[in-house]
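tool=predict chain=A
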Amino acid sequence: DNNHAMLVGRAIFSVLLLLYVVFLSPLSVKVPTFIQHCDQVARSLSNPQVVFMSRDKRTGQSFIVDDYLKGYQWIDENTPKDSRVMAWWDYGYQITGIAKRTSIADGNTWNHEHIATLGRTLTSSEKKAHNAIRHLADYVLVWAGGGGDDLAKSPHLARIGNSVFPDHCGDDDPKCNKFSFYSDYSPTPMMASSLLYKLCQHKVSPGVKVNEKLFKHVHTTKHGLMRVYQVMNVSQESKDWVADPKNRICDAPGSWYCVGQYPPALEKLIAKRRNFAQIEDFNKQGGKSALDSADSAGAAWKRAMTGQAGNQHHAD
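tool=predict ok
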């Protein structure tokens, strides 16, 4: 550092290297592209996801799309305060924070088995889905209207369900290809008969209707981006059981974090699950997944879950 000639030489080399990188190297093209990309991503992330601007393709005029916000507000204003809302986990925090209702799952998805149970239920046939949902939720919410809606995500939901429930698509179809779209974008038979397809396409696609004796359509937002269905014949026995503090499994008495249990009526369904060990399972012990580590009671149906009535803090 005391050699002035060396310091000058290093400074000149640094300047030349910088000039080369900025003006002569391939990075001179890539850097502005990268900066533009970062700016676009930042703008996208800074916009609220429940309200956004759109443009009319015919008139070119901009307008605000607030379907998601209005949909959650509708739930807050038109459903009982103790209602439990089932939806794919993407919308769990919005259900809790905006609609102010208990969500069955949210973005804290460390419990893969629970998320798979949700995916399996939503992509099952209408009657099979209702047999489980009536013990878990009072309403079902779906994002519809095309684009990245629940129907577009549904093959992913089916694959997740099949990873834990081998009877869903079968071990011979691990990617659950039987639940997908054909090349003409029409649904395969398994998708067409699923609850999720019928909820999204109810009276939209020709001949598609949900059985309103099982799921009653109660609300669709202005642009059709959110649809809400009331679960009919909800099991009050299961709802009371889950709401009873005696049936909560908490870290400590009075703890804010309760992993919860499924109601006994779902014992047969939960017994079909197989463990899905994940790399990030920090509770993993003896080859078991985090699910079994939290299963203090040891019974098949005493599995970690969210969405207990009266518990507004949820973890999957």
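The first helix runs from residue 4 to 24. The longest strand covers residues 215-220.
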